[in-house]
Specification:
By secondary structure, the chain is mainly α. The protein has one domain. 76% of the residues lie in helices and 0% in strands. The chain contains 18 helices and no strands. Helix 4 packs antiparallel against helix 12, helix 7 runs antiparallel to helix 8 and helix 10 packs antiparallel against helix 18. The longest helix is centred in the middle third of the chain and has 36 residues. It is flat, with a radius of gyration of 22 Å. It starts with a helix and ends with a helix.
Length: 348
């Protein structure tokens, strides 16, 4: 292979700071061009802009590149940040902390760590081995899938920073309080026997000395892994959202997801639990529901139940938890989600 070609391919490794500066400029230019490009595409298509089909197509063509561009940038940045928070380092930070403080730390670490429900069992075991209390472990496991960079990026891109911060605060509150309550109930006896019998290990920090170039490469790897995994969910979610935006009458959504229907929040939670998706797939649907008259508290409850109480995660956790502990976990988190839904429907 030509030496110059090899050198060009590794530019981000040779001059990572210059590469990052140029990447930011290119990203900003691309992001600014999204709206005029999407408008031009819609105008070029042989559909009426004011028709239902035209509205649905415009929704899809604008939101899809916007979400993917935002997501790529944030996942890249979070991938670099995540290099400071390996599983070993996370366990070390939490082990030995007092309850309450540890619950807050665990929930906060969930924002910047790239773990999802598929990692539930190994993380659960690893935390317990490191001496992390059961309730603190639950605070992390609730926060990590529910309040992560994907959810916050999409919320910021679609609704603005106020809603993104609101969701982050609510998600952290549910994770902290739920973990604390589970810890107070002293339910270690309802771990599966083989989990309780695993010998404890001392938590050690991962002392890997990574350079800026290494962290840039980790950012690339995160984009490849996370965006490569969730883009089908994004397309599916935006397509469903586009159909809702274009074809579902506003009065129909308001009739069973509005503020005035007392059973809308528990119904939203019940509907959300068996759904198998993540924040990338559900947030575009949430956007369309809100545009059609659904109440913010109801759709937040729906979204939180999908990402924090999904049936697949419960099935995975059954490998390490007895049914009574799973039921307690589900009940405590669902209660927090219901309170959030009712509170925001009452206030907003």
């Amino acid at each position: 292979m030509n030496t110059q070609a090899m050198s060009n391919k590794s530019w981000h490794k040779r001059q990572p700071a210059a590469f990052l500066a140029l990447a930011v400029l290119v990203w900003l230019a691309l992001y600014q061009s999204l709206n005029p490009v999407s408008e031009a595409l819609v105008a070029w298509l042989p559909v009426e802009r004011g028709s239902r089909l035209g509205g649905a197509i415009q929704f899809f063509l604008y939101d899809t590149p916007k979400v993917l561009v935002l997501l790529t940038a944030v996942v890249f940045a979070m991938g670099m940040l995540n290099s400071y928070f390996t599983a070993e380092r996370t366990r070390s930070l939490l082990a030995g902390r007092t309850e309450g403080v540890a619950n807050v730390m665990a929930a906060s670490l969930g924002i910047v760590t790239p773990f999802c429900s598929c990692s539930a069992v190994p993380l659960f075991i690893g935390f317990l081995q490191a001496g992390v209390p059961l309730g603190v472990t639950f605070s992390f496991l609730i926060s990590a899938p529910m309040v992560n960079e994907v959810a916050l990026t999409l919320l910021f891109g679609l609704f603005g920073w106020k809603v993104a911060l609101l969701y982050m605060g609510l998600g952290l509150s549910i994770a902290i309080v739920s973990g604390w309550v589970i810890g107070r109930l002293k339910m270690e006896a309802y771990l599966e026997d083989w989990v309780r019998d695993i010998p404890k290990m001392s938590a050690q920090f991962d002392k890997a000395d990574l350079t800026l170039a290494d962290r840039v490469q980790i950012g690339f790897n995160s984009v490849h892994e996370i965006v490569g995994k969730v883009w089908p969910y994004i397309l599916a979610g935006i397509a469903i959202g586009a159909c809702i935006h274009g074809y579902v009458p506003q009065d129909f959504m308001a009739s069973f997801m509005g503020k005035d229907v007392w059973w809308s929040v528990p119904l939203a939670v019940v509907i959300g639990v068996p759904m198998y998706t993540n924040a990338a797939g559900i947030i575009p649907i949430v956007q369309a529901l809100l545009a059609k008259g659904a109440a913010l508290g109801t759709v937040l409850a729906f979204m939180m139940s999908v990402v924090a109480l999904s049936l697949p995660e419960m099935i995975i956790l059954r490998k390490v938890l007895k049914l009574r502990l799973i039921a307690t976990f589900t009940g405590v988190v669902a209660t927090g989600i219901l309170l959030v839904g009712y509170a925001f429907n009452a206030v907003l």
